[in-house]
Sequence to fold (420 residues):
Amino acid sequence: METWGLLPYKNIAMAHSPQLVIVLGIFYKLFGTGLFQLKLFTWILALVCDLLLYFVVSKLVGRKAAIISVLSYVLLQLIFDGNGLWFDLALVPFAVCLYYFIQRKKYLLSGTLWALMFATKQTAFWFLIPVGLALIDYSNPFLLKKKKIADIFKFAFGVLIVFSIYGIAFIAFGIQNDFIDWAIKFGIFVLPRAVGQIQLPSISNLIVTGFPFAIFSVLLFLNKQKSKYFHLIFWAIAGAMGVYPRFEYFHLQPALPYIAIMFGLFLSDFKKYSGFLKFSGVVFVCGITLMFVNFFMRSWREGTRFNESDVVQVANYVKEKTKPGDKIFVLNWWDNIYPLSGTVPATNLWVPQLSWYQDINGIQSREVSEIKKNNPKMIIFQDYSQFGLSSYIPQDLYSYIIQNYEYKDKIGSIKILIPR
Fold:
């Protein structure tokens, strides 16, 4: 939608930081908009993650550990739903580079990278924990030496550089207040506690998630070289904090490089370990392999997510009935119909049709007002279900559409409505 001149926060309600959307918008401008371009961008991002991880581990440890780390990471990335474009996946390149520069004590660059992470997704906040531990004196964390104070200022200055650039850009585009409303007030202080937003993991989720982390316990309690692995647990925990409040496997993506590094360190010295540690290593390798096989068997026949046959049929129908840039409205169905059909929302502010967005005071009345003004020639509508996210009915918006639009056609379960 950015390619039609719609701005994040001003025209697109978005609870996340803007960087991924901006970069993706530029990519679409250069290479066109479409499913292939989205896949290409995601493949490039995944490849960048792999290459950066190899570079970092080879520089800090060695090539053998680097190869094992990358192979482990590729498996873990796919197991935990990394085969799609998520804000969490976009954090990974910055997370890997941040770890490297912290280890090299390049604190100005570290501050810049952390700020770029935060500009991608606000859950980068949690990485201040391992960064902070690296900046203080472990032997006496309450005693700040002059050198450490200087390092903290370097880090803070790196953050300030990036935030200043974004601040100037927001002011130039006139979206600074919209950014504060959506990304800060709503995204940080409202969304995490919103009714329906909290989704806790099941027992099976906890088992799958906990298995890769379990190797930390084995190494920290049984291996004599504990210091070799100890700091990685803080980085992995920081990367995993995004799973709260809404648990999904892909929220673990920023934690996976550190687990992979730990695998690389462990398996590269495999011959040196005692029998039990070797046995543990074999168990973990077999376990991760079985998890990957299970993922592969579940996924290899599946089509592209959000581009199922019914989505393609509806998008093609809309294309036939509209011209590029025409305004339509999608009610209770996938919003990717807009870019797939070359249309734009009939509302000047596109808002996800989820309760925690739609129940914000004034949102539905604004949507109704703009639908009245723009009079979209078509409404794409799916009946509400009894359970789940698609059971929520934005009453004001729904009532206006039902009163002023009538049934015209049907594609599968999707109704096409036109003005009465």
Q: What stands out?
A: The two ends are 28 Å apart (CA to CA). The first strand starts at residue 327 and ends at 331.
